[in-house]
Amino acid sequence: MNSKGIIYLFISLFFLNFTSIIAQTVQEEKQPLAVILKDLETNYNISFSYADETVQDKLVVLPSPDLTLQELLNYLKTSTQLEFELLDNRFVVIRTINLQTSSPNTVEHLPEIFITNYLTTGITKTKTGAINIKTESFGILPGLIEPDILQTVQALPGILSVDETVSNINVRGGTHDQNLILLDGIKMYQSGHFFGLISAYNPYLTEQVNIYKNGTSAQFGDGVSSIIDMQLSNTINDTFSAGIGLNLINVDGFAKIPISKKLELQVSTRRSLTDLVITPTYDQYFKRIFQDSDLTNNQSNDNNAISKNERFYFYDVMTKLLYDISEKDKLRFNFLNIYNNLDYEEQSRVNDVDEALNSKLTQHNLAAGISYTRDWNNKISTNAQVYLSNYDLDATNFDILNNQRLIQENEVYDTAIKLDFDYTFSNYFKLKSGYQFFETGISNLEDVNNPEFRSYIKEVTRSHSVFSEIEFISENRNTHLKFGGRLNQIKKLDKTLIEPRLSFNQRFLDFFRFELLGEFKSQTTSQIIDLQNDFLGVEKRRWVLSNNKDELDTANGETHIPIIKSKQISGGIHFNKNKLLVSAEAYIKDVKGITARSQGFQNQYQFVNANGGYLVRGVDFLINKQFTKFSSWFSYSYSKNDYTFEELNNGESFPNNVDIRHSLTFAGTYNYNNFKLALGLNWHSGKPFTTPEVGNEVSNGNINYNSPNNANLDDYLRLDSSATYTFHFNDKTRAIVGASLWNILNKKNVTNTYYTINSDEEITKVENLSLGITPNVSLRLHF
């Protein structure tokens, strides 16, 4: 039997064993109501809305799947002594029986959701165009046994990563630095652990995530491609809850600790095992991230052998303190610390002398914030927030053979003040306005000892922004309109920018919805690459600020970095009936003000300073069908993404480095009681690259290239699977075991190709490969 046959046999036995275990489960055992509700949402295509304390400590026997929806609600009411009110045939409000629903002060407003269980449980699409992910009720996705936030984002149509990392997420053809990542309103500059393979944010303390690809609220600046808005729990619980987990990469834990009725502490921490034990998962991750870096490149020759001893680890700590001063006044404190560390020792014998030098790389994001919210009455509320976000990337690289030491540092200090005002005119009209002040300072240091060279550049910008938007919801909830604008004033750059925003959603013919989204956006921070081997070749990108320099300053190496501006409009039609969703959305996005150094060129434009833009036209298509215990979806995205640089390619457009013309996903999930299974296929066309001229590859020591991005890599194909099983010990304690396989077929996908030339003017083709077959297992305990 060949290797593929063995893999298929292993998968089949794996799934059959799990199914056998499930078949022996005693269905009559009582289970926590909160757990059962998640399964019922999938089975009946409904959405439950309730306060956590309402369903707390409620145990019920899993109802028969043959019950009608009304019979189900009657059964739950009898079993739990709670009120289950069905709204709009899809939304169910759960209240205590003695709650006076006629009182206007106790009306519970449901979120404006029009698609529930989008792909899987816990993912919904709202009428504003945003995708909402609730991590607590998150189901399962292929290849994931835990709700990794930034990996989950890539399952959505129009979002992928051309190199499989969470530090390079491409939303509708944009680069990763064009995504605004927020944690409780605080801007994040580091997104991943293991230099991009794992999200840096603990999902078990993050309550929900909102993803905006277009039609963004006017309260958000930056992020010309997308907003990823992560929010921690903001409600004080009466009971203690916690969890610990272990997988083949890290160990983690979280706790929500009620100190009093007005005070609660939330804390989570995670620490890698990579410097303590070598696992198959770590081995695959190491090969993927450190390929073609200083750590793995062969620097030895016949007379000088170099041995290396590396040590790598990461950790993160997240805390939030909630203090309810009164029923109307709430105070919140946030703290986050993300850290990655790599160091390795190089030992070599040079000129009969033994030498050992230590190279290292650290990546650190520290953030802290405080916010105060006051509900003046049932119509008016205000919120004030102050935060600091500090990002620091440091590297010391020793080259023993050339007797050279290189120090590099990229540091960001970002402080902000935000003031928001919300006014509810009625059940149909809402107003949101505010003022924001940002001060961002970014410094870059480069220090070489041989030959002696030192460059230190620091830029600081201050911006003032005001915004306002009005939201309208019709009485029958069929029409939703949000329209507003944002005014940004950047004094240093002498720029005033006006940014309109639009989100419109209209239901028609009962089961159809039309969606129109539009926005103008801008940002003054971006990432560039000076040299591909910067920061040991692992974290090549460094943050920079837009400036007002019009041409290259040869004295200190500065260049003109403009403000990035984008315009986008999209329109979509969504059909949702009988657990069948068919969705199609077309869009046009025009982005200007990018620099060639921010795009990661590895061809004739690698060392060129030029400013330009890109234009993306595309369509995202999705079919999602849900059955009683099974959900499947097929998504397809087509986009044409072209650069235009007046100074490059004679001003003619050429394919973007992330021009993925076709992208396809086919996946399914299966839920049966406490068992969850997922299997999915990901395919997309290869990214562009530039080939040398055949027969005239080298001239004067340089590579002669064809026209930029004239060729494409081979198609990318990956098959993933995952499964989890939950054991309930009592109403508060449960254990979850999981297993996953990434790239089951062990496909050797090439994620990047470029060419180098040596001293003998010989060309070498370099290919970066994706992750090979990568197993992972996990064990979690919630109590």
Summarize the structure.
It is found in: Cell outer membrane. Helices cover 8% and strands 54% of the residues.
Describe the structure.
- By secondary structure, the chain is mainly beta.
- The protein folds into two domains: 1-110, 3-Layer(bab) Sandwich (Phage tail protein beta-alpha-beta fold), CATH 3.55.50.30; 231-782, TonB-dependent receptor, beta-barrel domain (Maltoporin, Chain A, Beta Barrel).
- The protein contains six helices and 47 strands.
- Residues 150-223 form the TonB-dependent receptor plug domain.
For this entry, give a set of tags.
single chain, 783 residues, mainly beta, Phage tail protein beta-alpha-beta fold, Maltoporin, Chain A, 2 domains, 22-stranded antiparallel beta barrel, seven-stranded mixed beta sheet, 6 helices, disordered N terminus, Plug_dom_sf, receptor, cell outer membrane, FecR_C, TonB-dependent receptor
CATH topology (fold) name of the largest domain = Maltoporin, Chain A
- Supply the CATH superfamily name of the largest domain: TonB-dependent receptor, beta-barrel domain
Number of helices: 6
Shape: globular
Give the total of beta strands.
47
Q: In oligomeric terms, what are we looking at?
A: single chain
Reported for the largest beta sheet, the result is: 22 strands, antiparallel, barrel
Low-confidence stretches: 1-28, 99-111, 298-305
